[in-house]
């Protein structure tokens, strides 16, 4: 597998998906298109990379930072981790869009949170939680998880 080519392809796919999400998030088909195609494609690519790079792994490797670092010793392993980030950050963005629509969060505030989520993952999600709390007075409840 040409890891550099896969890296370029998944980055382009993610960039296009995030632009689509930012610009067309109000369209009803946006979530379906992105989750059903882009996220699915990233997940399939992740599974293939994981299969190709999964070797004998000592379970102890997950118990220390040094052990975890040793698992990232190849380009394929790093690519697999990167695809994991891309897929889950996009899922977080899709969730934020649906949640923001339910709670009347403005397009501009949501867009700011989406940009941060695209670039910094959890920081963008945290920013969204702060924005939602500021706009609705509620940080989290079972009702708001939908």
By DSSP (H or I, 4+ residues per run), the number of helices equals: 6
| Uncertain residue ranges | none
**Principal-axes shape call:** globular
Mean pLDDT: 89
> Terminal Cα separation, in Å?
39 Å
Task: Give helix and strand order, one letter per element, not per position.
Answer: HHHHHH
Main β-sheet description: none
- How many β-strand runs? 0
Overall domain count:
1
Report helical residue fraction: over 70%
Q: Which structural class do you get from the secondary structure elements?
A: mainly alpha
Radius of gyration: 17 Å
Strand content: under 5%
Organism: Phnomibacter ginsenosidimutans
Protein name: DUF4281 domain-containing protein
Pfam families: ABA4-like
Keywords: Membrane, Transmembrane, Transmembrane helix
Textual characterization of the structure:
With 146 residues, the chain is mainly alpha-helical. The protein has one domain (3-145). The protein contains 6 helices and no strands. The mean pLDDT is 89. The radius of gyration is 17 Å and the shape is globular. The protein starts with a helix and ends in a 10-residue tail after the last helix. Keywords: Membrane, Transmembrane, Transmembrane helix. InterPro entries: ABA4-like (IPR025461). The chain crosses the membrane at residues 6-25, 32-54, 74-97, 109-131. This is DUF4281 domain-containing protein.
Secondary structure topology:
Elements: H1 3-24, H2 29-53, H3 65-71, H4 75-103, H5 107-120, H6 122-136
């Amino acid at each position: 597998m040409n890891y550099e080519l896969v890296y370029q392809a998944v980055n382009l796919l993610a960039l296009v998906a995030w632009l689509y999400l930012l610009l067309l998030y109000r369209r009803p088909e946006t979530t379906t298109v992105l989750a059903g195609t882009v996220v699915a494609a990233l997940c399939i690519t992740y599974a293939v990379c994981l299969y190709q790079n999964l070797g004998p792994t000592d379970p102890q490797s997950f118990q220390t930072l040094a052990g975890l670092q040793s698992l990232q010793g190849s380009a394929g392993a790093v690519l697999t981790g990167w695809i994991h980030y891309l897929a889950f950050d996009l899922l977080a963005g899709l969730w934020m869009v649906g949640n923001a629509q339910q709670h009347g969060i403005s397009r501009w505030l949501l867009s700011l949170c989406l940009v941060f989520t695209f670039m910094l993952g959890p920081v963008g999600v945290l920013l969204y939680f702060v924005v939602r709390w500021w706009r609705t007075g509620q940080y989290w409840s079972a009702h708001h998880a939908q």
